From TrEMBL:
One of its GO terms (biological process) is 3-(3-hydroxy)phenylpropionate catabolic process. Residues 7-344 form the FAD-binding domain. The keyword Oxidoreductase applies. It comes from the Bacteria. This is FAD-dependent monooxygenase. InterPro entries: FAD-bd, FAD/NAD-bd_sf, PheA/TfdB_FAD_monoxygenase. PANTHER family: 3-(3-HYDROXY-PHENYL)PROPIONATE/3-HYDROXYCINNAMIC ACID HYDROXYLASE, FAD-BINDING MONOOXYGENASE. SUPFAM superfamilies: FAD/NAD(P)-binding domain (SSF51905). Keywords: Monooxygenase, Oxidoreductase.
Length: 404
């Protein structure tokens, strides 16, 4: 069997993999994308595109395509017991994109993949073997085995792709007991179209985010999640629990009544110790899976892809004996690992804040948040939730300013 040969093989056709493929193609790199799924998955899943990711995507035109269909969220408020206890203002942070863009993941995928080669779908990559001057991928397409040879391989296939990079890239992983309910509403009259609302309640958090067209995403910590993970529970049963959570935590019976169907999900944390071993790279959720509470996972992957593409293109075309392309890749890996650790810590804090607690502990928490929200820490909170502490955020801001 003769293997097809490319400069770069990307494993995974989610937002991260498609973004990398498009960025490489823009730089004249011959790239192939292999995807296990035969068709894109439906649903909105990740919806928030944060300022650093928007800035990084601006030069390619992807940010403009995203914003053409997105709801813009310039602020978020925290509530408890029917009153506001704090506010974060993304529109006071400066930069070319002073807001979070909320948009279905399918829109983001289409925006970032412009110029990417069409993925080879239904291709399950079984293994990656490094060889002199390149790497060989063994894949199965339907019932047929095939091989792809590339000078570099980037695995961006989420948690499912982690087995392709282990043990050459070791890491740590753990699952959390927390479970959440989620529903997307087509419309939510009376809800602020430009404001995210986080309701902190002794029974657990309820998050409400704007969606394009006046819709709303609701996410609630689920007290019955541990039991439901062991039994078959229908979307209608999930919806019933979510309606009760909305009513109990916000008192908004009308909003609760709009929940017709809901899904449940759990969270995991996984961080690789390295993102590169020779000619094999791992980015996105393959390298660092963090809690979706806070919405930073997809953004981490997009920043991985946009920042890696020019460095990888330069590395592929390096002259013999030039050490600089290796050095800049090492610095890239250091920045992205540090950014993932920061995002994981913030996601862990968000998860902890959203859990159910005793009335006494809840009252103490609300008092502490109220005090912090009245002081200078509130600006740091806005920067943290807008991914301003990502190590590539300053570079992205400069790219965005030049691209808008």
């Amino acid at each position: 069997m003769r293997a097809a040969t490319h400069e770069v093989a990307v494993v995974g056709a989610g937002p991260t993999g498609l973004c990398l493929a498009a960025e490489l193609a823009r730089r004249g790199v011959d790239v192939v994308v292999l995807e296990r799924r035969s068709a894109p998955e439906p649903g909105t899943r990740a919806i928030g595109v944060h300022p650093p990711a928007l800035a990084a995507l601006a030069p390619s035109g992807a940010a403009e395509r995203i914003l053409a269909e997105a709801a813009r969220i310039p602020r978020g408020i925290a509530r408890s017991g029917g009153r506001a206890i704090g506010e974060v203002r993304f529109d006071r942070l400066g930069g070319p994109f002073p807001f979070v863009a909320a948009v279905p993941q399918a829109v983001t995928e289409a925006a970032v993949s412009a110029g990417s080669p069409e993925p080879m779908r239904g291709a399950e990559v079984l293994g990656v073997v490094e060889q002199p001057g390149g790497a060989l991928l063994r894949a199965r397409v339907g019932t047929e085995d095939t091989e792809v040879r590339a000078r570099a391989v980037v695995v961006a296939a989420g948690a499912a792709g982690r087995g392709l990079v282990l043990p050459r890239l070791s890491g740590s992983a753990r699952a959390c007991a927390d479970r959440y309910l989620m529903a997307d509403l087509a419309d939510a009259p009376g809800q602020p179209a430009d404001t995210a609302i986080v309701t902190l309640d002794a029974h657990g958090v309820l998050e409400s985010f704007p969606l394009p067209g006046g819709g709303r995403r609701l996410v609630a910590w689920d007290a019955g999640g541990a039991d439901s993970s062991r039994t078959a529970v229908s979307h209608e049963q999930h919806a019933d629990r979510l309606r009760r959570a909305v009513t109990e935590r916000t008192g908004d019976v009308g909003l609760a009544a709009r929940v017709q169907s809901a899904t449940a999900f759990g969270i995991r944390r996984s961080l690789l110790h390295r993102m590169r071993a020779g000619r094999v790279f791992a980015i996105g959720d393959t390298a660092h899976e963090v809690s979706p509470i806070g919405g930073q996972g997809m953004n981490l992957g997009l920043l991985d892809a946009v920042t890696l593409a020019p460095l990888l293109a330069r590395w592929l075309r390096r002259t013999e004996g030039d050490p600089e392309p290796e050095r800049v890749l090492a610095r890239w890996e250091h920045r992205r690992l540090a950014s993932a650790r920061t995002a994981a810590r913030l996601a862990g804090l968000n998860t902890a804040l959203g859990r159910a607690r005793s009335p006494h502990s809840h009252a103490a928490l609300i008092a502490a948040i109220s005090v912090a929200a009245a002081g200078p820490l509130v600006r740091l909170a806005a920067r943290a939730y807008a991914m301003g502490f990502d190590r590539d955020a300053p570079r992205a801001a400069r790219r965005g300013a030049a691209g808008v």
